[in-house]
Amino acid sequence: MLRIQQYVKAQSLEEAYTLLTKNRNNQILGGMCWLKMEDRLIPCAIDLGDLGLDKIEESEDVFTIGAMTTLRTLETHASLNAWCDHIIRDSVKDIVGVQLRNLATLGGSLYSRFGFSDVLTAFLCLDCDVVLYHGGVIPLAKFVQMPYMRDIITHVIVHKNKERKAFACVRKSATDLSLLNISASTYEKGYVICVGARPYKAVRFEIEKLAVEEVCQVVSEQVELDDNMRASKEYRRKLVGALCRRVLEQLEGKVCK
Ligand SMILES: Cc1cc2nc3c(=O)[nH]c(=O)nc-3n(C[C@H](O)[C@H](O)[C@H](O)COP(=O)(O)OP(=O)(O)OC[C@H]3O[C@@H](n4cnc5c(N)ncnc54)[C@H](O)[C@@H]3O)c2cc1C
């Protein structure tokens, strides 16, 4: 059971950061969907709800997404989804149900870097940065590799390039975790392909332009996969080939979503 000794609704990021770094067990609260399932004692739970971090702002070059933005807001944001070929909507729409998606946040999802995360896989193929209160602006591709640190994600900045994007995943049943997920985008030299739920956290490949079959083969050979209760390593290897072909064909406009 989760136990919280003190709850603070922070009035500034500085206050939140000071509280966070006071005790290694203090925690920032996102939507609490994951935290509430844990069996632990939190000396001080820090709520960012008063800090206006639940908005998506659009400028000519970027979308600036507050860390407290819910998955449901991401799913239903028309201009963000139109720009990203709807991969954000596609990556979150099967996560449990609307009630959970109305709570779970982008900050909590990216901070956690869950192996099964569809959200992480989708954002990883975009040109985007994580803004940490103390650590500054870090490309998501680098943040994914970093150890967990005592810091606060304040925003995610998505750069509006003109590349095409696609996302696909396989679930055994509608709201279960993905057995495997893949996102892809084009870039000037070729393709970015990200594979998650391997079952480890998503990895990103940049592959120079080759024929679709060759790209699928390279990714299938290079990606590290494993068994877990949802799927075997061998089955995942077959899924990598099939999903990789599916997202590449979407990028090339050969299939409709
Ligand atoms: C039953 C269930 C099923 C799920 N299924 C899926 C799925 O199929 N696909 C998928 O992609 N995801 C899935 N998720 C995960 C979900 O999408 C969220 O990623 C998860 O709940 C964490 O988000 P949260 O806002 O609830 O974070 P919380 O639970 O509040 O926090 C999680 C961690 O992140 C830290 N944190 C939160 N916000 C910040 C911040 N701004 N800065 C620094 N640290 C922060 C917290 O301190 C905590 O350590 C599932 C979750 C649940 C509970």
From TrEMBL:
GO molecular function: FAD binding; oxidoreductase activity
Top-rank taxon, per record: Bacteria
Pfam families: CO_deh_flav_C (PF03450), FAD_binding_5 (PF00941)
Signal peptide start-end: none
Database matches in InterPro entries: CO_DH_flav_C, CO_DH_flav_C_dom_sf, Diverse_Substr_Oxidored, FAD-bd_PCMH, FAD-bd_PCMH-like_sf, FAD-bd_PCMH_sub2, Mopterin_DH_FAD-bd
Keyword terms of this UniProt record: FAD, Flavoprotein, Oxidoreductase
Protein name as it appears in the record: 4-hydroxybenzoyl-CoA reductase
SMART domains: CO_deh_flav_C (SM01092)
Residues in FAD-binding PCMH-type domain copies: 1-163
